């Protein structure tokens, strides 16, 4: 006879949660924390009072909440850390990139048909769709031969059997799968220029800054060639401007590379912040020749901790594609999705995924690090650590950025006028939620424009993660259901539109 299987502690906790009296409230909280996998727990409360009369308009106290806490999403952009928060970030990135390509597209926008005004005031006119734009990929130069997948071909074929000064074969006759750990690692780690690689990562931000200046400069001779007369840099500044959004990503070899959308805008002499169409002679071809020229010429002298002279420049692997409307690649939605995907996925995740890992990097636990990220990335981290101790490299903060292999830039940046900001998107999301509450008759006394409210709050950190065993699992399951519902809703809208179009045609 078999004994009845007893529920595991997790199963018991799950049943507790689902049958608990406060389950509906808990679910609401989980939803508000966007089903984050590692939410921050806050204890305390807040009071919104009328500034004139002192009358209390609303009050929250976590004492009455499930588990006595408020859950706040972690907001991490990395998919390896929090799938749900990374997804929110990816969507925001998508909107950011897409609005710079096709104009602001949002449920929260209002205003006329020509220019859609965001709730917080940034305007991206629909006409940007017609602006010349390029999709540019820039990579790092080589710091020594590495193993590569080569699409199923031999890694590094060589006829001779030459070896390096360390006695290692210069070639590699193997065929590597694309996801094999050896791909991206040096043929000889002793020959590989680790200092150069780390210093390059540390200067890629400056290299990009110089590239942008060089593009603007290169526009003048390019315009001169088209117009058949001399065009000065000063004149060009009164005619056109480049805007961009860029995303940085780590390659397998631990070096940063960039994807950017560069757009050509015109100038409104009365309002330089406005986005207007460029003059007709300012074509995608003209922009492409200026970008190519800038990318070839630009360089940053790197510091020389070991007496070796190095200049930071772009690698020979680069791509400049015309993605203007009606051009060879017209699918702007795919382009936006592509950039957004890269914003949440980086190889540095492998190095910086957990705080435990960051601690171990700080104490430079070498054996552990090698096991966790492989010998090559571990050596990049170690090089950051060693160079970070030097007084002459202090300004690069290499120890602080060791987990990012020396790169201390932002993973996604844009020029001021490219499109809406992430902050604007967040504000729009808050406004939309408040609007929903209003629609349901609930007044939002917490919003700052509710008028004459003062908010007193006292919050204390109460921990990280979900409270009960099984909560995280439940949140993950709810996130999936939520996603599924979203997809079904979108599909429904699409079908409705199709039927509408068919009715119109009939
Ligand atoms: Zn999260
Ligand atoms: Zn190989
Ligand atoms: Zn060697």
What would you say about this model in short?
This protein has 13 helices and 13 strands. It is α+β, with helices and mostly antiparallel strands and about 500 residues long.
Task: Describe the overall structure.
It comes from Nocardiopsis mwathae. Residues 472-502 form a coiled coil. Keywords: Coiled coil. This is Replication initiation protein. The protein is an alpha+beta fold and 506 residues long. It has 2 domains: 9-76 and 451-505, no CATH class; 84-414, no CATH class. The chain is built from 13 helices and 13 strands. The protein has helices at 9-19, 23-32, 83-102, 194-227, 233-237, 284-297, 332-344, 349-352, 355-362, 366-373, 375-388, 422-439, 471-505; strands spanning 40-50, 56-61, 70-72, 115-117, 123-125, 133-138, 240-250, 256-266, 300-302, 310-312, 318-322, 412-414, 453-464. A 5-stranded antiparallel beta sheet has the order 11-6-8-7-12, with helices on both faces. Strand 4 (115-117) and strand 5 (123-125) form a beta hairpin. The radius of gyration is 27 Å and the shape is globular. The N and C termini lie far apart (70 Å). Residues 105-122 and 347-356 have low confidence and may be disordered. Bound molecules: zinc ion (3 copies). Residues 36-38, 73-74, 76, 82, 84-85 line the site of one zinc ion.
